[in-house]
Amino acid sequence: MKIRASIVSFLLVGLVIVIALIMQQGGLRDLKRGDVSSSYQPIGLGEQVPSTVKGWTGIDEPLGPTEFLQSAVEKNLNYDDMVNRRYVKGDSVFGVYAGYWSPGRMPVQKVASHTPDRCWSENGWNCEEAKFPVILEADGKTLRPAYWRRFTPPGGSQDTFVLYWHLVGGELYDYGTGFNQRIDPVAWWKETLHYAFKGSSEQFFIRLTSNKPFEEIWDEVGVQEIVGALAELGLVADAKRPVTGE
Question: What local confidence, expressed as pLDDT, does residue 183 receive?
Answer without folding.
Answer: 56
